[in-house]
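Structure (tokenized):
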């Protein structure tokens, strides 16, 4: 039968439609709409086994399409449509699995899982776009790049429970705090002068601004406060390892609440450390020090009041609480003017 006036579907049309369809589900997942209960038949081990399987299938279907368009002649529209359809089925399976994970498994787990799924989908969008480019110009660099991107994203080792995800979040935060301590050490090597400014000193007529003796004492107090925060994060990870649980919703919520409480530590430490460079602004430094000490104190109090600690942990909880108070008092004392002219 004649189809006059109707444009035939092209290879580029297929890949454009694939890209659009993936974009639709990506926006839905970013929107955060979830079924609170998930699947009533949810079984953790079986669920994550299914997720592993669909990631492997996504990688396999992507590879098939990539190889099919690695050289001329390209497959027919009909054969390509069949391959695209298989890839779309795997994508829909992944999306269905994502939505079937119960929220009761934990907000931290859900956040990590969402990031992984979105990264896979983002790579698939890039892959679909690269195939359009391939059929238009026969350029293959982007196709190869995005094929590799899908492989890499699909091979990520997924953390499968809230406890693992919480521990990772705490470890990531601790690493950033350690970086801040490294920055303090580097600042000491330049005597508080911002490194980039050292290069330009020969072109300046004024004297190089460095730390005073008082500044050095103040920065030492700052370092003590940051080290206390780092120690709190280390002990909190140990507490999560020992007593963190995913066996009931209240235990899962405790882990989520603690991670939420620690979420501002990294930015607070950054704001604090930014103030240590010469000329040191003591007012801003003290204000940021108070904020960091408040967050660290709140974390310690949360741990003390939760099931993550017991009476056995009282000694280190007390020690770190006292260390927060001591270092803040030291900071406030050292930032006072040395004399009437200060």
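Design, position by position:
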């Amino acid at each position: 039968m004649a189809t006059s006036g109707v444009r035939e579907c092209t290879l580029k049309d297929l890949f454009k439609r694939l890209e659009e369809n993936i974009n639709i589900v990506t926006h839905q997942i970013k929107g955060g709409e979830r079924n609170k209960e998930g699947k009533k038949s949810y079984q953790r081990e079986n669920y994550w086994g299914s997720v592993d399987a669909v990631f492997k299938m996504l990688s396999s279907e992507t590879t098939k399409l990539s190889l099919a368009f690695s050289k001329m002649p390209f497959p027919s529209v009909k054969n390509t449509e069949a391959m695209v359809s298989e890839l779309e089925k795997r994508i829909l399976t992944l999306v269905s699995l994502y939505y079937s994970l119960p929220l009761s498994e934990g907000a931290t787990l859900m956040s990590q899982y969402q990031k992984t799924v979105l990264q896979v989908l983002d790579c698939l969008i890039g892959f679909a776009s690269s195939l359009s480019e391939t059929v238009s110009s026969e350029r293959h660099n982007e196709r190869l790049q995005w094929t590799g991107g899908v492989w890499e994203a699909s091979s990520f080792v997924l953390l499968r429970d809230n406890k693992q995800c919480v521990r990772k979040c705490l470890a990531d935060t601790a690493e950033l705090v350690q970086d801040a301590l490294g920055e303090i050490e580097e600042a000491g090597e330049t005597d508080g002068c911002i490194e980039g400014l050292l290069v330009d000193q020969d072109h300046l007529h004024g004297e190089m601004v460095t730390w005073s003796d008082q500044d050095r004492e103040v920065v030492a107090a700052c370092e003590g406060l940051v080290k206390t925060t780092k120690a709190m994060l280390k002990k909190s990870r140990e507490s999560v390892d020992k007593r963190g649980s995913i066996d009931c919703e209240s235990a899962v919520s405790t882990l989520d609440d603690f991670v939420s409480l620690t979420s501002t530590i990294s930015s607070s430490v950054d704001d604090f450390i930014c103030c240590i460079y010469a000329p040191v602004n003591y007012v801003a430094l003290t204000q940021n020090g108070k904020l960091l000490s408040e967050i660290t104190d709140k974390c310690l109090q949360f741990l003390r009041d939760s099931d993550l600690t017991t009476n056995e942990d009282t000694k280190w909880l007390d020690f770190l609480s006292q260390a927060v108070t001591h270092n803040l008092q030291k900071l406030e004392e050292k930032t006072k003017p040395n004399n009437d002219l200060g």
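Reviewer-requested clarification: Residues 290 and 328 are 7 Å apart (CA to CA). Residues 107-137 form the longest helix (31 residues).
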